[in-house]
Design brief:
The chain is mostly helical.
């Protein structure tokens, strides 16, 4: 029997979903702010001329500071944090709302993978325009493009829509839809390990949350990195990169394979792993702590409210 509409609505519009979404957004902001310079390095490595000698993460960090100053490591931080806050809120809210709609209440890995993928699709279609703008803001002068016509998220949305068409705001969305498997794998791995840990423990300590988050993100990143590379290049746009116009996901993959070989699909992986694993680990640790704290406040102030 299908659940009653009122029960369905209460499952979606619940304190539980909001707490997880709020905690995920806060956790993402804390983690990205901490490890943002590594994200800057990753973008440089993904977008630099493939004919250049391959450089390590530390070498790129040194070069950026030497050529552009220490503050350049945090270029574009504000729009990235804005986009990340929106994106994490949407993803965590969607994921936990979909979990709440599961009437059986059963928990298993494939269910987490499916719900994570659905939440990812909702997130991609709703937040890709923000990521397109902040990617361009962040990398505005990597290829000598010192002015992009806008200097904040909102102006960038209108500028790109007006000058390149509304569809340009969803550049890389196809790769993004395929890449929903990344957070889906991440959440599946995280939830699976966490469930096993909770079989013999009452709570998940901060250090354990950090370690589980790191493992989950490392697995997801390695499996999906070539598509992440393609997505970054598509979001940045084809101008300045000697790329054919109307480049899509498959064409970009084939272009990189043809011009750089299979190794080109993993350019910048070292920096990406370092940045994304540390960021995800800190994000999950912060998320768990904030969620536990907010839930305790809600339960304390509303004794009859049950928040799982």
């Amino acid at each position: 029997m299908a659940p009653a509409p009122s029960k369905t609505l209460s499952s979606v519009f619940s304190y539980q979903s909001f707490v997880h979404a709020f905690s995920g957004a806060c956790g993402g902001i804390v983690a990205m702010s901490t490890f943002y310079p590594l994200d800057t390095v990753r973008h440089h490595l993904q977008l630099e001329d493939p004919d250049k000698k391959k450089r390590s993460t530390f070498e790129v960090l040194q070069q950026i500071v030497k050529d552009e100053g220490f503050s350049s490591l945090y270029r574009g931080l504000i729009p990235v944090l804005q986009s990340l806050c929106i994106s994490n809120f949407v993803y965590f809210y969607s994921f936990h709302s979909l979990k709440a709609l599961n009437a059986s209440g059963s928990q298993y890995a494939m269910r987490d993978l499916l719900l994570g993928s659905l939440a990812g699709c909702i997130n991609v279609m709703g937040t890709t325009p923000f990521w397109v703008v902040n990617t361009r803001l962040k990398m505005a002068d990597v290829r000598g493009e010192h002015r992009v016509g806008y200097d904040n998220l909102l102006d960038g949305l209108f500028y790109i829509a007006r000058n390149e068409g509304i569809t340009a705001l969803w550049a890389g969305a196809a790769a993004g839809l395929v890449l929903v498997i990344n957070p889906a794998i991440q959440f599946m791995t995280y939830e699976s390990i966490k469930r096993r840990f909770l079989l013999n423990n009452k709570n998940v300590p901060a250090a354990t949350s950090f370690a589980i988050g790191a493992i989950a993100k490392a697995v997801a990143t390695i499996l999906t990195y070539p598509l992440q590379l393609v997505q970054t290049r598509l979001r940045h746009g084809t101008k300045g990169g000697n790329l054919p116009p109307n480049m899509g996901t498959i064409k970009m993959l084939l272009h990189i394979l043809r011009t750089q070989g299979a190794a080109g699909l993993f350019r910048g992986l070292e920096a990406k792993l370092l940045q994304t694993v540390l960021t995800a680990a800190l994000m999950f640790m912060t998320y768990e702590k904030i969620a536990t704290f907010v839930k305790s406040l809600l339960i304390k102030n509303t004794p009859k409210l049950i928040i799982k």
